[in-house]
Amino acid sequence: MNDKKDKTILIEGVTKEGQKFRPSDWAERMSGRGATFRNSRIHYSPLLQSTVNKQGFKCVLLDERLKESNPALYQSILDFAEKNNLKICQDDDDEDDESV
Q: How buried is 16 (Cβ within 10 angstroms: 0-12 exposed, 13-18 middle, 19+ buried)?
């Protein structure tokens, strides 16, 4: 099924209280945790990517397939988001809110 393949979680760089999350490079740091180095270049994982939403907040797109390939990293990203009170949206919550 494509539904599981395409299922993502959007972690927004804004707290549930509406405050912009700092440091400003947090999304790049998170996506870098899934990156590899080959031929002197960094290659970001398609399962963990930084992006910017329509409101201009930095975000992380977390593909649920990461849970299968690297469960510890997947859980640590979600724990980080919860600990820092960041907004978390799943693709089945409200698709209009997640467009980036």
A: exposed
Domain ranges, residue 57? 2-93
Three-class secondary structure assignment of 14-81: EECCCCECCCCCHHHHHHHCCCEEECCEEECCCCEEEEECCCCCEEEEEECCHHHHCHHHHHHHHHHH
CATH number, residue 51: 3.30.70.2340
The mean pLDDT value of the chain amounts to 86
Residue with tokens 């927004």: 12
Count Cα atoms within 13 angstroms, Cβ side, for 16: 8
Task: Confirm whether 99 is domain-assigned.
Answer: no
Length of the chain in terms of residues written? 100
In whole angstroms, give the CA distance from residue 83 to residue 77.
Answer: 10
pTM over 0.85: no
Question: Is residue 25 within 8 Å of residue 35, measured between CB atoms?
Answer: no
